[in-house]
Amino acid sequence: MARIVQLPPSVITKIAAGEVIERPASVVKEMLENSIDAGSTRIDIEIENGGMDRIIIVDNGCGIDAADLPLVFASHATSKLSNADDLFRIGTLGFRGEAMASIGGVAQVTVQSRPANASAGAEIQCHGGELSPVKPWNGAPGTRIEVRHLFFNTPVRRKFMRTTATEAGHIAEVVTRMALAYPQLHFTLKHNSKKVHDVPSTANLKDRIGMFFGVEIMDRLYPISASRGPATLTGFIADPACERGNNRMQYLFLNGRHIRDRSLGHALQEAYRGLLMTGRYAVSFLFLEMPPDHVDVNVHPTKSEVRFRDAQALFHLVLSTVRTKLNSENLVPKLQAPVAVVPIMPIARPDPPAELFALPPEARVSDEDDCEDLAVAEPSTNGYTGVAHLPRMAGSLRALQLHDSYIVLETPEGMLVIDQHALHERILFEQLKQRWRSGDIEKQSLLVPEPVELTPEQAARTLEAKADLAELGLEVDAFGGSTILMSSYPAALGKAAPAQILRDIVDFLGSQDRAPNREQMLSDLLSMMACKAAVKAGDRLSPEQIAALLDQRHLVQDSHHCPHGRPTSLLFSRKDLDKQFGRI
């Protein structure tokens, strides 16, 4: 067995960096926290190549004395703690004294700073843990930190970084969180010399939310405010109509710090129970304030997880406050005026789209076929009486539509109840998948490309999947900031609103904890497209449409389940029917 040895400082620093500095966004987060703790009123951020090549943060805070500059990169050196008891009453964002030492160990860092009362400033450099002498710097009051070539001495770590757009998106998300927590601060962000955000200071949090997430969210926010014991909860919750496919639009802050807490997230979802479908998430911006000695923020090096003294009380505070507010509001969905979209080649489509029921040539019945009649119910006022006769090869069977949602079909075995949406979804999925594999998916171009506002992270994910989305007929481009410009969408989706199509796809991309392989991702997107294009529960079908739907059922694989695993039909055998009615 090898002898125990003490690791050298260079290795210790890199190990510590692995806990604190995960990616360029981690560097930005740690430095922004220091700038805010320094009392800054304006913070300017510049990044290059997603932050991998260069990160510059300039603030107008209190600055650092020249004599203290070498301690900036010393491990566990901080101005925010003096003894162990201070750990249980943290009133600042930073306190561990690890961040700058970790950054300096895996990057080339220059710190330039000047206190407001000093006639001149000073500069120090740290390259991979090696410090330069302190030298004079003639700059404005405040601090300027430049980080170059992150992970230059740990090339394996660089290989794990994502694309430039993804890393830039993570940084933009960090800035978004800080801007929401501190609306009184002025933030700017540039990427490769292009302005991403210029967020002026404001006392109105709702305006800042609208700046990042658009008027669609801002106009559907409900303010909340409540207290329980030493804790105060304020912020905004969104109307259930703003629901999303993941919880990335649930922002939770504690004493100005963005945190993640599964218990409070569960409380929020419970408050919306009955207002959201399974798998959908509320949109919220919640701010908790409580005395520092009621929470332990020294749980994880990234400081994103905390431990509450009375977590149960906070759970009930969030649950009761949000539920009370929702119960007091009129949540009846409001009719929204349709967005006028002028396609280059407009296609007239009845509702529901009749061509989606058209049989492929090989399945059409010719005059020479040995046909018998399929009796199908004619639509009427009660939704299921009346019979029409249509040609069918398989023999004389009877079918009718119930509640404009289910098709009941007589079979030799008994009675088959079919979910019209689930069956049509499976049929369209198989057809779309075949067209995609043959490179024949039709797209509908927009005469005027439509801008869609997303969060920075969502925009980055969407642009990362740009080539794959184009294969499905959905063409997107960056439009500035976190806005995506949509110029075409799959023609199979008919009259669906283009912006909603993109949002649904973005929600899907953001719901993946681990990136699926390309084949699986495209298959999942096709199933989502099929779901959007399929007839819905409540669509009344003509006898011809019912017949076409039933005929196509035999032309696809796995017709017994929809692409999401839900059954398309249920069989009630003749024996079961006789047994239920006491015949046997």
Task: Describe the secondary structure blueprint for this structure.
Layout: H1 9-20, H2 24-37, E1 42-48, E2 54-59, H3 69-72, H4 99-105, E3 108-114, E4 121-127, E5 130-131, E6 135-137, E7 142-148, H5 155-159, H6 164-181, E8 186-191, E9 194-199, H7 205-213, H8 215-218, E10 221-228, E11 231-238, E12 250-254, E13 257-258, H9 262-271, E14 284-289, E15 295-296, E16 307-308, H10 311-328, E17 372-376, E18 388-392, E19 397-402, E20 406-411, E21 414-419, H11 420-437, E22 443-453, H12 456-464, H13 466-471, E23 475-478, E24 483-490, H14 498-510, H15 518-533, H16 543-552, E25 569-573, H17 574-580
Parallel strand pairs: 1-8, 12-14, 17-19
Antiparallel strand pairs: 1-2, 2-7, 3-4, 3-7, 4-5, 4-6, 8-9, 10-11, 11-14, 12-13, 15-16, 17-18, 19-20, 20-21, 21-25, 22-24, 23-24
Helix pairs in contact: 1-4, 2-6, 6-12, 9-10, 11-15, 12-14, 14-15
Question: What does this protein structure show overall?
Answer:
The protein is an alpha+beta fold and 584 residues long. The protein folds into three domains: 9-201, Heat Shock Protein 90; 207-328, Ribosomal Protein S5, domain 2; 349-584, 2-Layer Sandwich (Ribosomal Protein S8, Chain: A, domain 1), CATH 3.30.1370.100. It has 17 helices and 25 strands. A hairpin with a 4-residue loop joins strand 23 (475-478) and strand 24. The longest helix has 18 residues, at 164-181.
Overall pLDDT score: 82
Distance between the termini: 77 Å
Structural class: alpha+beta
CATH topology heading of the largest domain: Ribosomal Protein S8, Chain: A, domain 1
Q: What is the count of structural domains?
A: 3
